[in-house]
Amino acid sequence: MPIHQPQQRSATASGEPLAVKQAEAALVEHYPRLVRLAYVVLPPALGRHRRVLAAHAAVQRALPVTRTAPARTAQVPAQSRRSPEAERAEAPANAPYASMRLRVLRTALAYERRPRWWPGRLPAPAALRPTLPVVWGLRLFPRAGGVDELALDRALSAVPGAVRAAFALQLLDGLPESGVRALLAEAGVADPAGAVRGAGRIERPDRAGAQVLLRSGEFDPCTVQTRPSDLLRRRHRTRAVGLAAVLCVVAGTLAVAAEKGVRDEAPGAGVTVPALDPAALLRTAAEQWADTSRIDFTAWPVRGDRQGDDELLGRALRAWAEPPGDVKVSTTPGTADVPPAQPPRLLFAGQVDGAAVVLFHDGGVRVVRYAEPLSGGGAAALDFTRTDDADVTTGAAVVVSRTGEKARFLLAPWIAESTTRDLLAPDTPGRPLGVDPDGITAAVERPAAGGGCDAWPVLQLRSSERIVEKHAFLVTDLGDLTPAHLTYTPKPGGGAPARQPREATSPEALLAWARTACSLRTLSGSGVRAVNNWAFAGQRLPEGGASADWLCTRADTWRGPGRVLVQFLQPAASPTEPATVVADRNDTALCSRFGQHILAGTRWKAASGRWYVLAAGSRAVDRIEATGQVRGTADGPTLAVRAPRDASVELTARLREGGTLAAVR
Description:
Layout: H1 18-29, H2 31-41, H3 48-60, H4 84-89, H5 95-110, H6 125-128, E1 138-142, H7 147-157, H8 161-171, H9 177-186, H10 192-200, H11 207-214, E2 224-228, H12 231-243, H13 249-264, H14 310-321, E3 328-331, E4 345-352, E5 355-362, E6 366-373, E7 381-386, E8 397-403, E9 406-411, E10 415-422, E11 431-432, E12 444-445, E13 457-463, E14 472-476, E15 484-489, E16 502-503, H15 507-516, E17 528-540, E18 547-557, E19 562-569, E20 580-586, E21 599-605, E22 611-617, E23 621-628, E24 632-635, E25 638-642, E26 649-655, E27 660-662
Parallel strand pairs: 3-7, 15-17
Antiparallel strand pairs: 1-2, 4-5, 5-6, 6-7, 8-9, 9-12, 10-11, 10-13, 13-14, 14-15, 15-16, 17-18, 18-19, 19-20, 21-22, 22-25, 23-24, 23-26, 26-27
């Protein structure tokens, strides 16, 4: 839905000085460019609908007031007071455009600027100002982009408006850093140099790639999509107006009439909202996955024997928009259960294990499953899970059915081979897993959610050579719609660079997972995307020299935060004897690419009956010190010191490149 842009008036209109006419011409010529700049700078907290309207309002208010007094010629504001740096920053833009850009920047930045006396809970005064354009009854959204656009939008939402402005001025207008600093200073930014530095720290691809992302539909408020506002909230507000009709009968009558019109247009009353129309569902071509660089849920073709059943699809979409009271709704942590803003992508519609199942993919960030029983009158179910930034492995399967202790998966079209194996039987090869023509697997045993841990079934999948990603990988069912990807990082080599996670299919990886698989029970239903076992150190034990390993098991969630379990693998008689958990930390960057240093310790009893404090650090640790009731030091990444069982000990480490590290608990 293209937003209507101002019509250009004749340059010969009487009573308007030339400078104002030039400013109007610049506004009309560069309107989309200015609106895009305003949209990027405005606070994301406004929401996309208000940002769209505020961006257009900021540009439309930028035109200077016409002056008709003959004694002085009107100038574009601030044109005569520009610094030399700002003058140079205008090239190749002309002076009228540069002045309009400055006015737009000032207005957009004002939305985050609060006076000292302004209440902290209220938005900045500019955000409360009534402005045109105004839209009633509709919500406006720029076209949704892909994973890269979403990641850039999130990065921009985490920085101040001045940093967003510096980022946009460099990439949209091509200004050098000196020109950006000068322009931000003129726009009233307190620390222009800091804003430019902050823009340089925003995670992004190369400059050309970032320019493409900023110029995509995700950041274009001139081409938008629409959906209705919250119909239920509109009803409640209209009813409130109806109560006020006691004071104004005529107004009350009009409000009731308007309310009836809203009800007549509600979904299911004869008019269908586009996002809830089965005919508007997005459907990917069957072979697109083999001819695209984006291998995720957007590449899944629609499958299932009821993909043409508009009645089933309509019920699923209506349940999503406004779930009836008897529908069981579940969401993984951090997943929104709001209705779709635009028509979602249909992945599957068919019958599985006595239920009609529909799978949708919504805007790159969610997979939604609707299931209703075919007989028996049971309740329908609606499940939501996040899937942003999915890839070949994390977008490889979705649970379509769980019955008892078994589950069935719908596999991605790029899965060429599927087997199942038990993590607690590392030496037992995988068993072939049947898959029907629609990509649905045979029933697979589910890991035990509680109680004993005698087996841990996983899927071992192999991707197709048609996407040049032919490799095997493991996924496991942790109670969410999408299974978690299991990986392994081997112990550091002498003098070798830091190693990266790899697929957990090697004998070494399977042996490590056999000792730690049962710890996965604590992650059930927490929205886990992937779990990596990092063998960050090996240690020779005192009194005999047997070898032990230290593992950091990191679970990354779809929403970002991770959980870490540090586990100590001492020699054991059985290859499946559970490891000892020595530390448990939530919401941490430890053991990720942003937390590559770790130190952990535990108490250990030798065969002689003597107790020791053991400690180990990652590859950058070159000295460990124990203090407290027991003292000891060791050069290198491991330490072992005699200590009473209950002695109080503090462990610290020195890093090779400088700095210290405390032991994780």
